Amino acid sequence: MMAAEKELQVKEKQQAQQQAESTRDIPVYIPDVDIYETQDALVMLVDMPGVAPQDVNIDLKDDTLTIRGTVSDYGLGETPVLMEYGVGDYFREFTLGHYIDQSKIEATMKDGVLKLVLPKVDRAKARKIEVKAE
Predict the structure, then answer these.
(1) Strand-pair partners of 110
(2) Quick check: is 48 in a domain?
């Protein structure tokens, strides 16, 4: 017997609550994020469709990682016929624990997905302790 099939459901984009006023007249959304843990790092995948790598701003201050993505030139000079996708900028913040080596965080962007690798400090990495015979 096949596993129960999940029904596809539309997930609405959530608008971010900003602390400051924006100079752009465009909505700001909370990007969807997947976080995976490996032995050496946490890996974050952040969905920001329509954002070019040069339009991503990542800041780290006081253990707070801030991600901003700006959509530029989307549909410029075009007349919309049908719009089912809300276009806007992206904003998300995360508080990092002390087990992340903040000086070694790496970021790459491909096809609208930002990948952040947050390496663990050596003391937070799991390790096997060898038992020696005496």
Answers:
(1) 113
(2) yes
Summarised one tens digit per residue, pLDDT across range 76-107 is: 677 878 777 778 899 999 999 888 999 999 99
- pTM value is 0.74
User: In the 3-class helix/strand/coil scheme, how is 12-67 assigned residue by residue?
Assistant: CCCECCCCCCCCCCCCEECCCEEEEECCCEEEEEEECCCCCHHHEEEEEECCEEEE
Residue 9 lies in a domain: no
Residue 15 lies in a domain: no
Residue among 18, 105, 103, 4 nearest 68 (CA): 18
Local structure of 55: helix, strand or coil: helix
Q: Is 123 helix (H, G, I), strand (E, B) or coil?
A: helix
The CATH number of the domain holding residue 120 is: 2.60.40.790
Edge-to-edge, what's the strand order for the sheet holding 64-69?
28-29, 89-95, 64-69, 56-61
pLDDT digits (tens, 9 = 90+) for 115-127: 999 999 887 667 7
> What domain range is 54 assigned to?
28-74+86-124
In a domain? residue 91: yes
